[in-house]
Design goal:
Length: 118
């Protein structure tokens, strides 16, 4: 029920991939959860990006009777999220880059403009 540093790091590796080398070798908890190459040991990885999208976005939309997000929008959204959520800050998209990404331009900003007009 309570998250530990190791369980949080494990989730991050499951979703984002192996830690940068110098962090990976410093993390002592990796030995009980991962092979040296980052593959999970004796367990299935936690939810993938796609699993999380289904669980945290699509399922609640279904429960509320909202339209499902189609695959083109989903793919664009996941690309945007992956560009923001990386281990190294220098590899993350800037706010300007996020505002220019496909999901923002095709879906988010037009919807925001529609809402503003109401």
């Amino acid at each position: 029920m309570f998250a530990t540093d190791d369980s949080i790091t494990c989730e991050q590796v499951d979703v984002l991939g192996i830690l940068p080398s110098e962090w990976w070798h410093e993390w002592q908890g990796r030995h009980t959860r991962f092979m040296e190459d980052g593959k999970p040991m004796n367990r299935d990885p936690s939810m993938s990006w796609e699993d999380r999208f289904e669980h945290d976005i699509q399922a609640p939309r279904r429960r509320e009777g909202m339209q499902r997000i189609d695959s083109a929008e989903k793919d664009a959204f996941l690309r945007m999220m992956k560009s923001k959520i990386t281990f190294r800050p220098e590899n993350r998209y800037s706010a300007k880059q996020i505002l220019e990404c496909e999901w923002m331009v095709k879906w988010a900003l037009p919807e925001y403009e529609n809402i503003r007009r109401i």
